[in-house]
């Protein structure tokens, strides 16, 4: 095996891993704050892809400017989903929130398929490439990495340095106590759900700049997000990023040893093993 | 003057009624205690007044306003603050962050600095440990933090639910010293305690709860002399 090929594949995979991590962070944030598994995660990623695409194709909006718009719309959409579907079943058993978010999933997929069909789309942009020996860094992926790092840092600053972010953590830690201290917990939960969907939509928008997609593509990334969350420990944003990098590295390296169709097999084998042996995640405390 | 007045309050969990037409009031600046056996409805009373569970019937007036159906956060914003049973801290946040979360309401925010100095003066240990996670504190320190966090909220009325639970005898005495000090400073408080003897000793007024009903009320000194109370709760 050529070391140079290995290195190139690894770096390629790691770059993707940042974006996977970003998507998983959305899932893990919502779980961490309100113990809801958002089964509409995948379709929201797909909506992020379509948002950037439609703004680019029909409005001529630069995809990276489009990403900002899509992130904001993702926030509003998440707040709407929370208000309509999640809030009323939040204190019910987990099955209810799973069904509620799964219904949202079905609605997005249904309407999305009707509107956009399942013909693959892609956003045709190139930001050139940087070449270091065997390693080729595509401009779009490099920007996606920077965007993912920037968004992660912003999320951390928000959660640990702002009063509103601390309120999110307080509600996550103990909702009743937060409410007793004067924190409007329902509004904080709605915002947190919005942030989770914002992260998913932003990740989708970034993925759309380098992979073709359909309205169904989100499902793949939703499954990856689950694997990543289990790797990093559900509810742990840093874990999500590291889990994303691990998964990205695997996706880069596995095809150099065996057919690419084995990638999901290995990923889910890992998923099952982790659930059996270390359900709190590689770095999880709880 | 009564700052908090509860009239004919009924409430419970699911189909089970716990509180039956409960009426009581808190006089401004006084320490009132609510005592009663396990399961008599003390904690449920506090939870219903705060809005953590829904009042079924009856009315709650705070500072002259009807607050019966307000959610807990709105009541907190008005200065009705509860230190819940079992501390209920934000365990994975630091001491300082817990205190900040105590002071998020509009009435508390402008007085953040003064209140912080006040609670650090009251509990110097918290100042030493301000960057430590709340969950890593000892039981006594956690109780201090729970009270400190509530004081950061600039309470007009403070509910203390079983603050001595799980504390060593020495720490219980320290705790009651703090409560006494808050009382001298003029804070209106409602104390729910299993330690009936101490609670009656420092309170001005007492309500005795039994089976979700007020069985007896009066000056704490008189209630402590009541035969039924002496038999049932003081073991005399």
Describe this structure in words.
The complex is a heterodimer of chains A (286) and B (236). By secondary structure, chain A is an all-alpha fold. In chain A, 75% of the residues lie in helices and 3% in strands. Chain A has one domain (3-277): Orthogonal Bundle (ABC transporter involved in vitamin B12 uptake, BtuC). Chain A has a two-stranded antiparallel sheet with strand order 1-2. In chain A, strand 1 and strand 2 (135-138) form a beta hairpin. The longest helix of chain A has 32 residues, at 3-34. Chain A is globular, with a radius of gyration of 19 Å. Chain B folds into 2 domains: 1-79 and 156-236, Rossmann fold, CATH 3.40.50; 87-153, no CATH class. Helix content of chain B is 38%, strand content 28%. Chain B contains 10 helices and 10 strands. A 6-stranded mixed β-sheet of chain B has the order 6-7-8-3-9-10, sandwiched between helices. Chain B is globular. Classes of the chains: A mainly alpha (286), B alpha/beta (236). The A-B interface holds A 163, 166-167, 169-170, 173-174, 176-185 and B 50, 52, 71-73, 76-77, 81-82, 84, 88-93, 97, 100-102, 104-105, 108, 149-150, 153.
Key words describing this protein structure:
heterodimer; A: 286 residues; mainly alpha; B: 236 residues; alpha/beta; Rossmann fold; 2 domains; 4-stranded antiparallel beta sheet; 10 strands; 28% strand; globular
Quick take:
The complex is a heterodimer of chains A (286) and B (236). Chain A is an all-alpha fold and 286 residues long.
Q: What is the average per-residue confidence, as pLDDT of chain A, rounded to a whole number? A: 93
Averaged pLDDT of chain B, please? 95
Biggest sheet statistics of chain B: 6 strands, mixed
Instruction: Identify the CATH architecture of chain A.
Output: Orthogonal Bundle
**Biggest beta sheet summary of chain A:** 2 strands, antiparallel
Query: Which series of helices and strands of chain B comes N to C?
Result: EEEHEEHEHHHHEHEHEEHH
> Strands across the major sheet of chain B, in which order?
6-7-8-3-9-10
Spatial extent as radius of gyration of chain A? 19 Å
Rg on CA atoms of chain B, Å: 17 Å
Strand content of chain A: under 5%
C-alpha end-to-end distance of chain A? 40 Å
Give the largest chain-chain interface (CB within 8 Å): A-B, 17 and 26 residues
> Can you identify the CATH superfamily of the largest domain in chain B?
P-loop containing nucleotide triphosphate hydrolases
Q: In CATH, what is the class of chain A?
A: Mainly Alpha
């Amino acid at each position: 095996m050529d070391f140079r090929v290995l290195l190139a594949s690894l770096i390629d995979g790691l770059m993707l891993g940042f974006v996977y991590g970003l998507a998983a962070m959305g899932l893990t944030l919502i779980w961490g704050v309100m113990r809801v598994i958002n089964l509409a995660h995948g379709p929201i990623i797909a909506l992020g892809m379509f948002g950037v695409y439609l703004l680019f194709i029909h409005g001529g909006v630069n995809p990276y400017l489009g990403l900002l718009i899509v992130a904001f719309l993702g926030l509003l959409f998440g707040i709407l989903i929370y208000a309509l579907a999640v809030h009323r079943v939040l204190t019910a058993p987990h099955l209810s929130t799973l069904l509620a978010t799964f219904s949202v999933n079905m609605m997005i997929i249904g309407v999305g398929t009707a509107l956009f069909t399942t013909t693959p789309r892609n956003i045709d942009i190139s930001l050139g490439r940087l070449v270091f020996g065997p390693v080729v860094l595509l401009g779009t992926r490099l920007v996606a990495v920077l965007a993912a790092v920037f968004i992660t840092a912003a999320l951390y600053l928000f959660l640990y340095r702002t009063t509103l972010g601390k309120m999110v953590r307080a509600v996550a830690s103990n909702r009743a106590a937060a409410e007793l201290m004067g924190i409007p917990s329902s509004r904080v939960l709605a915002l947190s759900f919005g942030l989770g969907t914002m992260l998913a939509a932003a990740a989708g928008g970034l993925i759309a700049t380098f992979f073709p997609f359909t309205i169904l593509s989100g499902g793949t990334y939703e499954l990856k997000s689950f694997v990543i969350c289990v790797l990093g420990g559900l509810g742990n944003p840093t874990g999500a990023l590291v889990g994303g990098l691990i998964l990205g590295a695997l996706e880069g390296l596995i095809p150099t040893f065996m057919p690419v169709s084995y990638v999901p097999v290995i990923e889910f084998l890992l998923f099952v093993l982790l659930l059996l042996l270390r359900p709190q995640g590689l770095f999880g405390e709880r | 003057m009564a700052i908090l007045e509860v009239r004919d309050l009924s409430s419970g969990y699911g189909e089970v009624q716990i509180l039956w037409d409960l009426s009581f009031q808190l006089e401004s600046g006084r320490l009132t205690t609510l005592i009663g056996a396990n399961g008599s409805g003390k904690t449920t009373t506090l939870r219903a007044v705060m809005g953590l569970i829904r009042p079924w019937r009856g009315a709650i007036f705070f500072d002259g306003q009807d607050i019966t159906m307000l959610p807990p956060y709105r009541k907190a914003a008005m200065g009705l603050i509860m230190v819940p049973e079992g501390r209920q801290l934000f365990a994975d946040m630091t001491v300082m962050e817990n205190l900040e979360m105590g002071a998020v309401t509009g009435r508390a925010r402008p007085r953040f600095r003064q209140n912080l100095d006040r609670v650090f003066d009251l509990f110097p240990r918290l100042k030493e440990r301000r960057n430590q996670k709340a969950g890593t504190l000892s039981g006594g320190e956690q109780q201090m933090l729970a009270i400190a966090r509530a004081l950061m909220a600039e309470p007009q009325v403070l509910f203390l639910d079983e603050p001595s639970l799980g504390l060593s005898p020495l720490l219980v005495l320290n705790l009651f010293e703090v409560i006494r000090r808050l009382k001298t400073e003029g804070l209106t408080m409602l104390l729910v305690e299993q330690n009936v003897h101490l609670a009656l000793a420092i309170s001005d007024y007492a309500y005795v709860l039994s089976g979700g009903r007020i069985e007896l009320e009066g000056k704490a000194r008189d209630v402590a002399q009541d035969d039924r109370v002496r038999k049932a709760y003081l073991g005399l």
